[in-house]
Write a structure and sequence with these properties.
The chain is mainly beta. It has a single domain (22-180), classed as Pnp Oxidase, Chain A (Roll), CATH 2.30.110. It contains four helices and 14 strands. The strands form four sheets. Strands 3-2-6-9-10-5-4 form a seven-stranded antiparallel sheet, with helices on one face. A three-stranded antiparallel sheet has the order 1-13-14, with no helix packed on it. A two-stranded antiparallel ribbon has the order 7-8. Pfam families: Flavin_Reduct (PF01613).
């Protein structure tokens, strides 16, 4: 099968995000200029550089009360900071509860019963029991093609790692089993790993 996206795929559901899988989930916490708290998952998320460490996520839809974007992007425009929390399998239901189109004034931490903790380097909350949390300062927001597509880049200025996830000096993902996003309404979980040595190393 071949299709051109502008012509449509002819399938019952869009296959695009089922093809690019699995994807890590950035559970993005932000605080608005008015002090309101927000927590929402984004599967267009990844690390993009080592030095300095940087991450990005994309917001790809809009809410009518947020001037062409969503709460996370609107808050980051106001404050210039965000925290990317890593989602473990055990928190899948709490993560899903925060994914709804809630009103601006809804605190998703409270909605989903998630403990919050203050960040150290930025004025923002983080998921207290997340396996890891990356405190970020905004570097740029890039407008992408489409009506509400924004790529948001941040420099990581603080890193939290849960102590039980560090084994013999290694951050061990099998201690918490990362949740990953597939296509449609599907998710997966990482329960095994293996190593490959690069040529020349």
């Amino acid at each position: 099968m071949f299709y051109r996206p502008q012509d449509g795929h002819g399938l019952p559901h869009n296959p695009f995000n089922a093809i690019v899988t699995p994807r890590p989930i950035g559970w993005i916490s932000t605080r608005g200029a008015d002090g309101s708290e927000n927590l929402a998952p984004y599967s267009f998320f990844n690390a993009v550089a080592y030095t300095p460490p940087q991450v990005m996520f994309c917001s790809t839809s809009a809410k009518p009360d947020r001037d062409g974007t969503k709460d996370s992007a609107a808050n980051i425009r106001e404050t210039g900071v965000f925290c990317a929390n890593i989602v473990e399998f055990a928190m899948k239901d709490a993560m899903n509860a925060t994914s709804g189109p809630w009103e601006k004034d809804v605190d998703e931490f409270d909605l989903a019963g998630i403990d919050k903790a203050p960040c150290e380097a930025i004025p923002c909350s983080r998921v207290a029991n997340a396996p890891a949390s990356l405190e970020c300062r905004l570097t740029q927001i890039v407008r992408l093609e489409g009506p509400a597509n924004y790529a948001i880049f941040g420099e990581v200025v603080g890193v939290h790692m849960r102590d039980d996830c560090i084994v013999d000096g290694i951050f061990d993902v099998l201690r918490y089993n990362p949740l990953t996003r597939m296509g449609y309404q599907d998710y997966s979980v990482i329960r095994e790993k293996f190593s490959l040595r690069r040529p020349g190393q």
